[in-house]
């Protein structure tokens, strides 16, 4: 059963080295997190799983990696300088700030004597800094709040160099920054996060069909990576909550312990962004279709998802508690491609006689999989640790291995053990992991 309490995951993440509060030795930096040895592997796996599906396994999407620091002209054109705001209210008594659209009532949640709100004002979420040694208007730059603009401003470059034509997509994975008024819920909403976005450029008349296509594809992706279907749903944005660039957005939501929450947005950005950049840059960002003799500005369908936020959803969905041999255990039933380690190599004892064989097996397997080598503690405790960090398979090297050249594969989910010859270990692991 998926975790019903966020603390189950927050505690596991801290205890096992997935996620730590940032700058902890200085008392912490609110709503900012560092990814530890296991969390950084899982975050990387999450991004690689997305790239595998969105780029590697199709021939109509290319990947780019654009700059984070962005000059103001880009966000003047995209509308972010004027419109990327949240409505902010200040309480004049307790001095706390809130997003007006997230308040359930007009009363301050602090509920102090006489608490009172100011009128709402638009608060721009972009972080601004300055480039170079001179701090004046001319050197303002912004940390990108979405990666999307990197795809739009490089549309002509990619078109010329990649031999693609609409319908085709440009994908990007990278850091985005938003000065959120109310960050929170662990890694669900932070001010710095990893965004994975696809801008899919289509002939205008084909945009509705591709929008439907991407909604279906993206929902299936979460199911394929192990999120139970009943924990997922679509929610269509009301017209008053649409981003300034969108004519229609559907969110994929996950049932978090605190209720349904967005994990991905699929937006119909039409030709809004390309037209804005055409107007502001005076450059050509359209496409000439030689087959139909038509020139047009492509429409864009954009699936956009935060890697950290879906990592939280994957962890929550994978969490389970059961009883094995009369003992309770907690286990992360993570998809093998998402788990920090795919295989743990465990010599039964720390004795010198087993170490060379176990080490040689680790050396072979670690060329193919992220593996952990662990020779401390009793074997049962080591299995429990691997279960709790989501390692799908353990390979145990025992004293018989020296005689029969076989090892034991132990399965995380069923706890079943099977003896296999070392010669067929790699193929057996590949069969079970699926890669
Ligand atoms: N380019 C479109 C765009 O950025 P968005 O709905 O604002 O759309 C896309 O963000 C996704 O990014 C969200 O569905 C969520 O997964 C993630 N995300 C947004 N803000 C976030 C934050 N403050 N912390 C973590 N993830 C965030």
Compact summary:
With 435 residues, the chain is of the alpha+beta class. The protein has helices spanning 6-16, 37-56, 72-78, 80-83, 148-153, 155-162, 207-224, 272-281, 307-318, 355-365, 379-389, 399-404, 425-433; strands at residues 19-21, 33-35, 61-64, 69-70, 85-90, 97-99, 121-124, 127-130, 140-143, 168-177, 192-202, 232-236, 249-256, 259-270, 287-289, 294-296, 299-306, 319-324, 327-332, 343-347, 371-373, 393-397, 406-411, 417-421.
Describe the structure.
- With 435 residues, the chain is α+β, with helices and mostly antiparallel strands.
- It is built from 13 helices and 24 strands.
- The chain has helices at residues 6-16, 37-56, 72-78, 80-83, 148-153, 155-162, 207-224, 272-281, 307-318, 355-365, 379-389, 399-404, 425-433; strands at 19-21, 33-35, 61-64, 69-70, 85-90, 97-99, 121-124, 127-130, 140-143, 168-177, 192-202, 232-236, 249-256, 259-270, 287-289, 294-296, 299-306, 319-324, 327-332, 343-347, 371-373, 393-397, 406-411, 417-421.
- A seven-stranded mixed sheet has the order 3-10-11-17-14-13-12, with helices on both faces. It has a five-stranded mixed sheet with strand order 21-20-22-23-24, sandwiched between helices. Strands 4-9-8 form a three-stranded antiparallel sheet.
- A hairpin with a 4-residue loop joins β15 (287-289) and β16 (294-296).
- α2 packs across α9 (307-318).
- The longest helix has 20 residues, at 37-56.
- The radius of gyration is 25 Å and the shape is globular.
- It starts with 5 loop residues before the first helix and ends with a helix.
- The mean pLDDT is 95.
- Bound molecules: glycyl-adenosine-5'-phosphate (GAP).
- Glycyl-adenosine-5'-phosphate (GAP) binds at residues 146, 148, 178, 180, 189-190, 193, 195, 197, 262-265, 302, 304-306, 308-309.
């Amino acid at each position: 059963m998926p975790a019903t309490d966020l603390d189950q995951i927050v505690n596991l993440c801290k205890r096992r080295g997935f996620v730590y509060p940032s700058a902890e030795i200085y008392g912490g930096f609110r709503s900012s997190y560092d990814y530890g040895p296991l969390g950084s592997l899982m975050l990387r796996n999450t991004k690689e799983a997305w790239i595998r599906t969105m780029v590697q396994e199709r021939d109509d999407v290319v990947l780019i990696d654009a700059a984070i620091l962005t000059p103001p002209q880009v966000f003047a054109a995209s509308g972010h300088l004027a419109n990327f705001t949240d409505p902010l209210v200040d309480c004049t008594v307790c001095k706390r700030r809130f997003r007006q659209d997230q308040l359930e009532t007009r009363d301050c949640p602090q509920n102090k004597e006489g608490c009172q709100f100011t009128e709402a004002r638009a608060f721009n979420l972009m972080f601004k800094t300055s480039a170079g040694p001179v701090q004046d208007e001319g050197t303002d730059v912004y940390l990108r709040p979405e990666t999307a603009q990197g795809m739009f401003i490089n549309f002509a470059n990619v078109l010329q160099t990649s031999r693609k034509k609409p319908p085709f997509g440009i994908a990007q994975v990278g850091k985005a920054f938003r000065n959120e008024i109310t960050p929170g819920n662990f890694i669900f909403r932070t001010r710095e996060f990893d965004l994975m976005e696809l801008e899919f450029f289509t002939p205008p008349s084909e945009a509705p069909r591709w929008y439907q296509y991407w909604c279906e594809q993206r929902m299936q992706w979460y199911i394929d990576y192990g999120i139970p279907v009943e924990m997922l749903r679509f929610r269509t944005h009301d017209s008053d909550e649409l981003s300034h660039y969108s004519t229609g957005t559907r969110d994929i939501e996950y049932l978090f312990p605190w209720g349904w929450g967005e994990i991905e947005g699929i937006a119909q950005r039409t030709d809004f962004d390309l037209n804005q950049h055409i107007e502001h840059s005076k450059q050509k960002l359209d496409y000439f279709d030689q087959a139909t003799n038509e020139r047009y500005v492509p429409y864009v369908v954009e699936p956009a998802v935060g890697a950290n936020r879906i990592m939280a959803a994957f962890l929550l969905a994978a969490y389970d508690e059961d009883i094995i041999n009369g003992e309770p255990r907690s286990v992360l039933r993570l998809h093998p491609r998402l788990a920090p380690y795919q295989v743990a190599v465990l010599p039964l004892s720390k004795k010198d006689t087993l170490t060379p064989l176990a080490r040689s097996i680790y050396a072979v397997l670690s060329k193919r999989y992220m593996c952990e080598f662990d020779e401390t503690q009793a074997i049962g405790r080591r299995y429990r640790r691997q279960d709790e960090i989501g390692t799908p398979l353990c390979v145990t090297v025992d004293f018989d291995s020296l005689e029969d050249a076989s090892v034991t594969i132990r399965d995380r989910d069923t706890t079943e053990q099977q003896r296999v010859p070392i010669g067929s270990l790699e193929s057996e692991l590949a069969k079970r992991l699926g890669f």
